[in-house]
Amino acid sequence: MSVDGFSGGVAVTGQSSPEPRGPRLPEFPWDSLASAGELARSHPDGVVNLSVGTPVDSVPPVLREALAAGADSPGYPATHGTAELRSTAVEALRRRHGVTGLDTEAVLPTVGSKEFVAWLPTLLGVRPGDVVAIPELAYPTYEVGARLAGAEIVRLAPGQTPPAGTALVWLNSPSNPTGRVDGAATMAESVRAAREVGAVVASDECYLDLGWRTRPVSVLDRAVSGESQDGVLAVHSLSKTSNFAGYRAGFVTGDPRLVGNLLEVRKHAGMIMPRPVQEAMTAALGDDEHVRQQYERYRARRERLWSALEGAGFRIDHSEAGLYLWASGDTDAWSTVDWLARRGILVAPGTFYGPAGKQHVRVALTASDERVEAATRRLAE
């Protein structure tokens, strides 16, 4: 052995480093948007970034106050969250969405919803050879989670049923990216089909509060899942409606047996929401006024952007709910991205969400009123 300049360490010469091992993941989508972003940022009046659904408005004072009040929390927080948080979540779903019959023990806080989406197949014990079914156009992390577990991926067009061997079916209404809303009957059929092949249903409901032209329904509504929540999970996030993305706060609820199993794994793995964030989340779930105010901000921005995009020759498809407009100029998505970037407007190509998005772009409502106004002026030029 020879020492090769290490301080106190010994290196073995003549031996190559081992090849990194792990799942083969797709390219992180927004990395491929770098050149379009550079072009958009070169606009004399600055970029209008409508590519990512990240909140830009302030965290409501009532939530910041709750965070500060919980700051003196030297001990480890409970993975299961406080009893108050769980009961407040149950009450919020009843009050805001008419969901009844939930067990407060079957509520589990998550460190935002993205980490939960990415790790859910693994936490459920999905194995190589199993199938994870995702929507035809879908949030990319559904696919990433399946790959982390070594599972196969099937994209289901509307109305398609999952194949035999499917272990997990993702639902997403309102949809990211399209804003499409599935009615109760459609969702009930999806739940029935998943149960028929023995699959768990996970419904990503982080846009449930943002219905524009129709009222979205939770998978836990009795009209969807019936009298039993067996095999059904609803995933919620506070990022969009409470401007909480920086706090990383969400929760999952539904089938008590499944939630209990997830809790046990997460306790072992240390997947715990910090106690001050739990206090702020409890305040957010207990206060509907800040949700209403944020809804109105997004509604106004949506109306301005919709009108401006149509005036520039685009067609808006679906977009009945959610935080995005699903726009098409009947041309290649990347050509549209480039056309808008030359006007200082950055959007996401529909291909980020699946091959069926090749002629669409996703336009987020998450920009300040001033930036939205800048976008409408540029689209009118």
TrEMBL record:
Top-level taxonomic group: Bacteria
Range of residues in the leader sequence: none
Top EC category: transferase
Domain Aminotransferase class I/classII large: 47-379
Pfam families linked: Aminotran_1_2 (PF00155)
Record-listed E.C. numbers: 2.6.1.-
Region Disordered: start-end pairs: 1-30
Keywords: Aminotransferase, Transferase
SUPFAM superfamilies, per the entry: PLP-dependent transferases
Cofactor(s) this protein requires: pyridoxal 5'-phosphate
Sample GO molecular function, one term: pyridoxal phosphate binding
InterPro entries xref list: Aminotransferase_I/II_large, LL-DAP_aminotransferase, NHTrfase_class1_PyrdxlP-BS, OxyQ, PyrdxlP-dep_Trfase, PyrdxlP-dep_Trfase_major, PyrdxlP-dep_Trfase_small
Entries under PROSITE patterns matching the protein: AA_TRANSFER_CLASS_1
NCBIfam families from the UniProt entry: DapC_actino
Family under the similarity heading: Belongs to the class-I pyridoxal-phosphate-dependent aminotransferase family.
Protein name (record): Aminotransferase
Annotated source species: Actinopolyspora mzabensis
Lineage summary: Bacteria, Bacillati, Actinomycetota, Actinomycetes, Actinopolysporales
